[in-house]
Specification:
By secondary structure, this protein is of the alpha+beta class. The protein contains 7 helices and 14 strands.
């Protein structure tokens, strides 16, 4: 692979940043400076000098309108996340966050993990609504991270996708990694991280299908990428190929994707717990419009 593409994937940096490092002589192979367009060779000793962070990530603690606490105890807090809210702060994101919203409510989270991700054991895209569990205690953080990693958490989503998947019930087993040309997107690529999505048809409409989806893995944008790879992108998901005309007709400003249900063993005593989230107003309105068409 080219230096900019390969190091972008290895280090999780944008190709633009890697290209800048190469231009400054900060990327070397066996002591020789590399250009961004040079090819990486297996077995080469790479030395990369990374730039210092521009600034620390700060946590906005303002209240988050629409962030609902469905359950809270000494170990966990389960929330229903609204649209336009990220799980935690990150470079380049200046909007609202789940961790900031909980802080504003006086909820103390686990101190495990990176400072900006304390208590976060899984994430939802800013544009995806629904159920999230956040760890308050250290034992909860450890137990839930282990449970997610070992696929012992049931993650059920509802999505409306364009067209009609054939077969109506199936599994997508395809590796996902960053898109080779677009840093802000992900894609099915050879050599990516193993990713498995199961889907089942709930309701069919003339132009779209409501799917019930469960995940074995939890890759970034996994459902959106896999549905797009099947040529049935989530309705409203313009980033991954959705029809803008249908998106406008259904009055959507984001993908029709909702984290409907989360089930796991409670970290305190191992008992099974399950939480369900109703559709938010924008998704319910779009669903009603599709049903009216049928």
């Amino acid at each position: 692979m080219r230096v900019d593409a390969g190091l972008s994937r290895l280090l999780g940096l944008s190709r633009t940043v890697v290209a800048g490092l190469a231009e400054d002589g900060q990327v070397r192979a066996d002591g020789r400076a590399l250009d961004k367009s040079d090819r990486l060779v297996a077995g080469t000793w790479l030395e990369v000098t990374l730039p210092a962070p521009d600034r620390p990530v700060t946590e906005p603690t303002a209240a988050v309108e629409g962030l609902l606490r469905l359950h809270e105890d000494d170990d966990i807090v389960v929330v229903d996340k609204p649209v336009g809210v990220a799980a935690h702060p990150s470079p380049g994101w200046s909007g609202r966050t789940v961790t900031g919203g909980l802080a504003a409510l006086g909820v103390r989270l686990s101190t495990s993990g990176a400072d900006e991700r304390q208590g976060i054991v899984h994430r939802l895209d800013a544009g995806t609504t629904g159920i999230m569990v956040v760890a308050k205690s250290e034992r909860a953080y450890t137990a839930l991270k282990w449970a997610f990693k070992n696929r012992e958490v049931t993650k059920r989503y509802h999505a409306i996708v364009q067209g009609h998947p054939d077969p109506t019930r199936g599994t997508v087993d395809a590796p996902i990694d960053r898109h080779p040309r677009h840093d802000y997107r992900f894609a099915v690529v050879a050599g990516g991280k193993p990713s498995v999505t199961h889907y089942d048809t709930v309701e069919a409409f003339p132009a779209a299908t409501l799917l019930d989806i469960t995940l074995e893995t939890g890759r970034t944008h996994q459902i959106r990428v896999h549905m797009s790879a099947l040529r049935h992108p989530c309705v409203g998901d313009l980033t991954y190929g959705a029809d803008p005309t249908l998106t406008a007709r259904l009055e959507l400003s984001r993908q029709w994707l909702h984290a409907r249900q989360l089930a796991f063993a409670h970290p305190a005593d191992g008992r099974g717990v399950e939480f369900t989230s109703p559709y938010p107003d924008d998704l319910r309105r779009a669903l009603d419009l599709l049903r009216a068409d049928g």
